UniProtKB/TrEMBL annotation:
Residues 11-22 have a biased composition (Polar residues). GO terms for molecular function: ATPase activator activity. This is J domain-containing protein. One of its GO terms (cellular component) is PAM complex, Tim23 associated import motor. It comes from Malus baccata. Belongs to the TIM14 family. The keyword Ligase does not apply. Component of the PAM complex, a complex required for the translocation of transit peptide-containing proteins from the inner membrane into the mitochondrial matrix in an ATP-dependent manner. It comes from the Eukaryota. It is found in: Mitochondrion inner membrane.
Length: 155
């Protein structure tokens, strides 16, 4: 079929000659030296770049899979707040009082009272809490409100 179309468009079965440089075939546009270096570079660079792209994708996928497995197999982490570790100071400071109540040192009086109430509900002696901890919580409230200078607890 192609032969018929070619003979229909070109009855003498000769293809027309190129008249300008844009109509010339690619191999006739360049000098032999420029054609060799340019075409050789393109012929060699394309598979090289394709290979590098495949290798980079494979390494990125491998790293991603390893990171995902490490993420999934890590031990579960407790979602609890970190509390102050250590004992009480002989004389309570404002910093220690703020740590006991779970507030900032510069908290307002209403925040101090609210925090004191929450901590006391959890540690009240009538609800099974310790008398020592209750006295320290009360002392922390007094220090934060400025009622005492941290004179120490009864215990």
């Amino acid at each position: 079929m192609l032969g018929r179309a070619q003979s229909f468009f070109f009855p003498n079965s000769q293809q027309p000659k190129a008249t300008t440089s844009f109509e010339k075939p690619l191999n006739e546009r360049h000098t032999p030296n420029s054609q060799l270096s340019h075409d050789t570079f393109n012929d060699m660079a394309t598979p090289l770049l394709a290979g590098l792209a495949v290798a980079a994708t494979a390494l990125a996928g491998r790293y991603g899979i390893q990171a995902w497995h490490a993420f999934k197999t890590r031990p579960p982490k407790a979602r609890m707040r970190k509390f102050y570790e250590g004992g009480f100071q002989p004389t309570m400071t404002k910093r220690e009082a703020a740590l006991i109540l779970g507030i900032r040192e510069s908290a307002a009086a209403d925040k101090v009272k609210e925090a004191h109430r929450k901590v006391m509900v959890a540690n009240h002696p009538d609800a099974g809490g310790s008398h020592y901890l209750a006295s320290k919580i009360n002392e922390a409230k007094d220090v934060m409100l400025g009622k005492t200078k941290g004179s120490g607890s009864a215990f």
